[in-house]
Amino acid sequence: xQLVLLRLFLWGKILRQLGLTKKxxxxxxxxxxxxxxxxxxxxxxxxxDPKIIGYLCNWCCYAGADLAGVSRIQYPHNIRIIRxxxxxxxxxxIIIEMFIQGIDGIFIGGCHPGDxxxxxGNYHTENRIEMTKKLLERxxxxxxxxxxxxxxxxxxxxxAKVMKEMSQKIKELGPNPVSGNSPNLKILEQLIIARNxxxxxxxxxxxxKAYILTEKGNVYNKKIEEERLKDTLEEIMDExxxxxxxxxxxxxxxxxxxxxxxDINCPSKSVLEHLVVLRDRGLVGLEKIEGSSPxxxxxxx
Amino acid sequence: xxxLGMYSRAPLREGGGGIATEEAKVIxxxxxxxxxxxxxxxxxxxxxxGISGMQSALDLADxxxxxxxxxxxxxxxxxxxQLDKTFPTNDCAMCIMAPKLVExxxxxxxxxxxNADLEGVEGEAGNFKVTVAKxxxxxxxxxxxxxxxxxxxxxxxxxxxxxxxxxxxxxxxxKYPQSVPPVHCIDQDICIGCGVCETQCEAEAIRYSQxxxxxxxxxxxxxxxxxxxEFDILSKRKExxxxxxxxxxxxxxxxxxxxxxxxxxxxxxxxxxxxxxKSVAFIQCVGSRxxxxxxxxxxxxxxxxxxxxAVIAQEHAPGLKATIFFMDMRAFGKEFxxxxxxxxxxxxxxxxxxxxxxxxxxxxxxxxxxxxxxxEGELKEEKFELVVLSVGMNAPKTAKDLGSKLEVELNEFDxxxxxxxxxxxxxxxxxxxxxxxxxxxxxxxxxxxxxxAASVASCIIASERDTLVEVKEYPEEKDFSGQESRIGVxxxxxxxxxxxxxxxxxxxxxxxxxxxVVYAEDNLYTCSQDTQQKIxxxxxEHDLNRVVVASCTPRTHEPLFQNTVREAGVNPYFFEMANxxxxxxxxxxxxxxxxxxxxxxxxxxxISKASLLEPLSKVxxxxxxxxxxxxxGISGMIAALDLAMQGFESHIVEKESELGGNLRHLxxxxxxxxxxxxxKETIDKVKSNDKIFVHTNAEIKNIEGxxxxxKTTISKNGxxxxxxxxxxxxxxxxxxxxxxEYLFGQDERIITQLDFERMLANKEAKAKxxxxIQCVGSRTSERTYCSRVCCSEAVKNALKMKxxxxxxxxxxLYKDMRTYGFREIFYxxxxxxxxxxxxxxxxxxxxxxxQDNVLKVSVPDRFLGETIDIDPDLLVLSTATIxxxxxxxxxxxxxxxxxxxxxxxxxxxxxxxxxxxxxxIFLCGLAHSPKFLEECISQAKGTVSRxxxxxxxxxxxANAVISVxxxxxxxxxxxxxxxxxxxxxxxxxxxxxILHSKINEALCxxxxxxxxxxxxxxxxxxxxxxxQIMTMIDSALKGGEAKExxxxxxxxxCCNWCSYAGADLAGVSRFQYPPNIRIIRxxxxxxxxxxxxxxAFHKGVDGVLVAGCHIGDxxxxxGNENAxxxxKNVKELMGMLGIDERRTRLEWISASEGKRFAEVMTEFVNDIKELGPNPMNPIEQxxxxxxxxxxxPQ
Lengths: 301, 1194
Prior knowledge:
The complex is a heterodimer.
Chain A: H1 2-17, H2 32-40, E1 52-57, H3 61-70, E2 79-84, H4 92-100, E3 105-110, H5 121-138, E4 146-150, H6 156-173, H7 185-198, H8 201-216, H9 226-252, H10 257-264, H11 268-280, E5 284-290, E6 293-298
Parallel strand pairs in A: 1-2, 1-3, 3-4
Antiparallel strand pairs in A: 5-6
Helix pairs in contact in A: 3-6, 4-5, 4-7, 5-8, 5-9, 7-9, 8-9, 9-10, 9-11, 10-11
Chain B: H1 2-8, H2 17-33, E1 43-47, H3 51-62, E2 66-70, E3 85-86, E4 91-92, H4 93-106, E5 110-113, E6 116-124, E7 127-134, H5 149-153, E8 157-159, E9 168-170, E10 172-173, E11 185-186, H6 196-200, E12 213-219, E13 221-224, E14 229-230, H7 233-236, E15 248-250, H8 251-258, E16 279-286, H9 302-316, E17 321-325, H10 336-345, E18 350-352, E19 361-363, E20 368-375, E21 378-384, E22 386-391, E23 393-394, H11 399-406, E24 431-433, H12 443-459, E25 487-492, H13 504-512, E26 517-523, H14 529-542, E27 546-551, H15 554-567, E28 575-579, H16 581-585, H17 592-610, E29 619-622, E30 626-630, H18 634-646, E31 649-653, H19 675-688, E32 692-695, E33 698-706, E34 709-716, E35 719-725, E36 727-730, E37 734-736, E38 750-752, H20 753-761, E39 769-776, H21 790-804, E40 809-814, H22 824-832, E41 836-839, E42 847-851, E43 854-861, E44 866-870, E45 874-879, E46 881-883, H23 887-894, E47 921-923, H24 933-951, E48 955-958, E49 963-965, H25 975-979, E50 985-989, E51 995-999, H26 1009-1013, E52 1019-1021, H27 1026-1036, E53 1050-1055, ...
Parallel strand pairs in B: 1-2, 1-13, 2-5, 13-24, 15-22, 16-17, 16-22, 17-18, 25-26, 25-27, 27-28, 30-31, 30-36, 31-32, 36-47, 38-45, 39-40, 39-45, 40-41, 53-54, 53-55, 55-56
Antiparallel strand pairs in B: 3-4, 6-7, 7-12, 8-9, 10-11, 14-23, 19-20, 20-21, 29-48, 33-34, 34-35, 37-46, 42-43, 43-44, 49-52, 50-51
Helix pairs in contact in B: 1-2, 3-4, 3-12, 3-24, 8-9, 9-10, 12-18, 12-24, 13-17, 14-15, 17-27, 18-19, 18-24, 20-21, 21-22, 27-29, 28-31
């Protein structure tokens, strides 16, 4: 229990350091599962003992894990399994949120392509996880901490093998840089930025529609080339990340374009371009003009 | 031809794209199998819906023709929609254009075919069959409300072309907020087809299955007005670093930056770092006057465009310094030079002459730009934080395609080929052109041409007038009698024009608390088409019976809103406006608190009047379907001939013994036309036309009456005769200035350009050395304007001289060579042929001497740094064109204004170049300002088009605002008969033998002078009733908290035509004055009854201003004289009541005296401050004065 409180205390401190308030972050900062996980699995020894969470679909992977149990197949203890009905339930912002809260690795298990109980849920999962990995990579967290596998109800051996591999991999990678009592605030801020970007309607929409658009055809009954969609998605991802970086920078204090650019290490020209968009969205306002510099601030919509 | 009639009733928009077109196709087929066609089609196709296309469309639609407007883009509006402000008045482009946009969009005789291309044209003049391919928008035009929810949810972004890439737009988008039609469009090139817009659209307007449609239409003639394309700097002029250096932008990008609706909400920012630049350089002639880039011509508008942007940029960013680098400043239009002078002297803009900047370098660290230029003979280098390239105009990209499909010829630069003598005609019969497609030009010239094109396009189908049009039907008017007032209030942000100063939401909240207000909201632009829809739906939803709009001035926007409420079944006179922009936010820019308070007061005053409004109906006056043309020069004759072709008779009144005017002195053109032959032909045509009556040696003695019903007395060879006519076209022409400079008249070798032209035409010019001096009498301190034609005329005559005598040496001494448009090519040719051009400066003009019978001209050349001495055989002076001497007399008779230069002053410099503010009177040619022959012809044709909008109807709907007599109160004293200048009241006996007054509705102009003079308040001036004015006075005082310091509260009664317009101009010009004043608009200062003023003092006002037109200028002839008498009486009474008479002030302020208005206000407020509070303030003086005694001062 003390650990939980410490963690919560630290969390608040971090948020304050980042100039964030709970309101800004939306409703997702508390995940009961995680808190309990933190409480239940304190590191007893000095050796790094990875905390891995597994989201397994009810119909294949979860059944596979059960079978591993029935068959008494042994695998490392690091994973805590949460049952979900379909792997497609997991959205990118949930994954990033878990990393924000300090988890070392995340495993998503679903049915093999074509076997989905909900027909094509796992195709959506595939697109989303791919997008999440790209986001993680862009904000400086090793995407290998996230793993997606198709495990059928009969593949108990495979489940155990994947678990072993995953545990090994995370051990190699070491603890999540934002976990523990002295998290890497830079990466933490970036993760929050990534989480907010992943929550942006453009990314949610396109990652959700990607499968239909490329495989089934769009509203004009035309299939979008995978490459084109991928490019579009990456472009949007970069744009939204940059916009979130600008917002994050403005959250700390009202600034001019030049100052923001310096803060987020990005050309002023792009900052100005995206500031125009954010202003149109009502997220940024002109606070005042200082000399020849317009100073912008973050305005709650 | 009933078939087309049926088609015209198959609405393209309302019925939804697909269905309507199917019908159209069926009907098209029927037309083919039906009888062969004998008659022409009474419809016109206009290709290009910019300002030119809209003007043509409105003129044609208002004179009985069906109009189709084809635009390749999803919205009409063209290039003007992208502009922030317009020169030389600094009017907000969108403000003046929006009413036209809205009108075009909803005119029942105009069908918009947007997002469409021309496919093919068959047939001949009078009977064209046109095929149009309409690209799918994927949005149902009949269902989309333009709400914009879809764009918010669309995930795909792309650079916004409308904002020149400085902003983003979505795949589903609308071109600009005020777009007409207000229908979204999906950009197929970038849409990935996710389908989210369909899920978001409440109106169910998304149609992914929409396909391209082919529409067939039948028209009698075609007008081409596709506009222009920007010069391609990126690929053709790389040395300016455009696209490479972030802080090099084009002039249109600058325009978007300056716009309140632009990317930075009106701030000018460096794209590289978002800082406000401290120094901005404008580089002129980028892609103009540049043969290597393929554009040897001048783009005509960029000089003024740059000055305007520089002025506005400095206004938006204090501390910003603008510099303009140019070769010649081509400020050749009406009052452009004044603007240029003001920019330099008042705004401190730096002008660096004689410079074509050849390239731009960048300082990598600061992204500042380095320009190299020559100043005073020295090579200089200077850094600027922002560089604006004044980009030239190219022919539209569609020009070649249009040319080949329509089989019309283009010139070598792909602009439309037209002739000097038929400036609007293409090479194909029945196909006409206007606007920038003929040659680069500015908005007023474009609008005049557009009207002209409408005239020529309708001349050939004049017999089909009214065959295809529908009569606009309004829903039945709702009867609100006996009902309580239910007022809806709409308050406009006008971008940041109002919202940037006045706290609009606060005003909205305040309005909601006022009695009878059941609904109030704010709008970004209340004048936009979507808001019009909103107003209509709010009238329905809240059962409103009165509407108040608080926005700009009723002078420009009242008709628009009145029509809107009428469309919702509400009588248009149940509408009232509060002017919180021109008379509030713009004039109190630095006092947001006080401005907000004033806005609240103005809104409250309007609401109080609104609740007392009554429904009115218009009187239809019969129209005398003929015109009077004053002046028998080429403009007048062309107007008469076009009127005749339109089927209307006209009378030309010419003071001289022969027709022809100034054209008699012009002989040839470089393009080969024989002008004297043309003149002779025109005169013959005029004389032989049985619809034209020519009165030479005739003088106008008197003009009375009004639109539709003028009576003019002329004296012809000593005999007087009366002409009845419906419209007046003023074509009084101009004169050549008789120079006093340069020893003119003292030596026969010193001649004018016109003399020289005659000598050249007669091959008499034998001189070896010729010197021409430009700007003789133009652009001087006495006459600041440019005479526009002299530079080109000088080049013309110089080239002719070279042709006759190749060995001649010719010097042209000039200030700026203003050979705009394609005339530049002759200038270039002249330079190539060795004609020597030397620029002279105002402080060192050429010196002309005659020594020992040798003519000597010496001029300092700053470029070479030495004085050049020439001994010419001939000195030719390019003399100014000055206004006709008759202008003043005619202006007085017509009650129309003159400009400060003595030319006639049109209704609006930009959008109404050939109209006067007074209905039914038009102007063209040199009466308007100096101009070329082809421009005179275009304008003359333009006046005909405008006149046809009146003459084509049997009845003219007169104003509903008139006075009526309450017979039960009338004592028959006859005071009203005395006071009325129009003879409207008459004393009649009723059946009981009692004498009382009766007002003739047709004659009444609604000034209200009679009501003010009536001793028993028996005359009611509708819409300006005593109660309505009194309640405004009353409510004006009800706002605001007491302040610690004395702040005078002043009421101003301003006449609609001069002082109110002057107050608006103060706003437009942003002349600041104290916010202590509340203006009540009346039609005439003569309306102000003494009781209004005394009542105001009685209620506690600290000062009252009565402002009217200058004596002699009164729109109602002598209303202001009545006002003068009444104010004098009031002052006497005030003395008796113990009020300082200085608290009442009478001022004459004209529509052009914005500055003066602000000065008078400031002065008056200061005077009242000295006098202290009104001693009659009811709080201090509870006893009421005797009211009866002050109501009738006589």
